[in-house]
Amino acid sequence: MALRQTLLIQRHLIVGAMGVLLVWLFWMSRPEWSSEMRMWRSFGDASLMLLFFSIASGPITRLWPRAAILQTFRRQAGIWFTILALIHGFLVWDGWALWSVSRFLGYEFIPQLNRIVRLEPGFGLANIIGMLGLFMAVVLMATSSERALKLLGPSWKWLHHSASTIFYLSAIHTGYFLYIHYTISFHKNPAPPNWFRIPFLVLVAFLLLIKWLAFIKTVRKRKAA
Fold first, then answer.
1. Which of 1, 46, 68, 123 is the most buried (most CB within 10 A)?
2. Closest CA to 57 of 73, 45, 44, 46
3. Range list of β-strands (E), the chain
4. How distant, in Å, are the alpha carbons of 2, 107, 125, 161, 189 from that of 130?
5. Domain that holds residue 199
6. What is the tens place of the pLDDT at every residue in 17-65?
7. Helix (H, G, I), strand (E, B), or coil: what is residue 118?
């Protein structure tokens, strides 16, 4: 039991350190951005990388059984994804939305018009999608323990299958801010280009590819059996 707890702590330390390193790397890669935007995007992008690792470890192991060691870090990656995503959400609410629901949904006061308007309809929807994914992630984190597994029984596995849904929601949320939101408008200048655009597409495409390949391999294996 003590050995098991020690291994669990070690895995959390490894994945936690990986998360901190990712945040730092994303922060250092965008010196031209304002410090506030750099901070919340660094936590958001780092959390997405941990989520990608958590989701991808399953199909990778099915395709290449020798990579099974990745599975041992899967749960910790999911937990640390949620922690970083919660920090990202807090920074957005506290530093940008200022705890205003209308501002979070994309309504802003424009001095040129002297009234509150909604300039980009997709902005609020993208934030709602992100919050939904975060809520689901918190539920999974709260049930990511052996005690929860025993308590929930077969329902635990069904619940944790929603991890892929969380990734798709996060991908839609991230994709909006990478490709749609920061465009030229009459009242503000767009943010500097984000280098993460192409790597993001590669990661999503790679994950979809290995999930389909793993599915095909599993079906063929069952038919052969």
1. 46
2. 73
3. 107-110, 115-118
4. 38, 17, 9, 18, 24
5. 2-224
6. 999 999 999 999 999 888 888 999 999 999 999 999 999 999 999 999 9
7. strand
Model confidence band, residue 1 (pLDDT cutoffs 50, 70, 90): low
Helix (H) or strand (E) holding 107: strand 107-110
Least Cα distance to 126 among 179, 77, 64, 62 occurs for 179
- Tell me the two tokens of residue 167: 């990734």
Task: Using the structure block, give the residue that is written with the tokens 């029984």.
Answer: 153
Question: What are 107's strand-pairing partners?
Answer: 118
Rounded distance, CA 140 to CA 216, Å? Answer: 27
> Do residues 118 and 124 make contact, with C-beta atoms less than 8 angstroms apart?
yes
Residues across the chain = 225
Crossing angle (nearest 10°) for helices 35-63 and 2-28: 130
How does the average pLDDT of the chain come out, rounded? 88
Q: Which two tokens stand for residue 41?
A: 């995007």
Residue identified by tokens 């280098």 is 195
pLDDT tens digits, 114-148: 787 777 778 889 999 999 999 999 998 888 877 77
Tokens in use for 24? 């730092």
Domain count, the chain: 1
Give the residue carrying structure tokens 């944790």: 160
8-state DSSP, 189: P
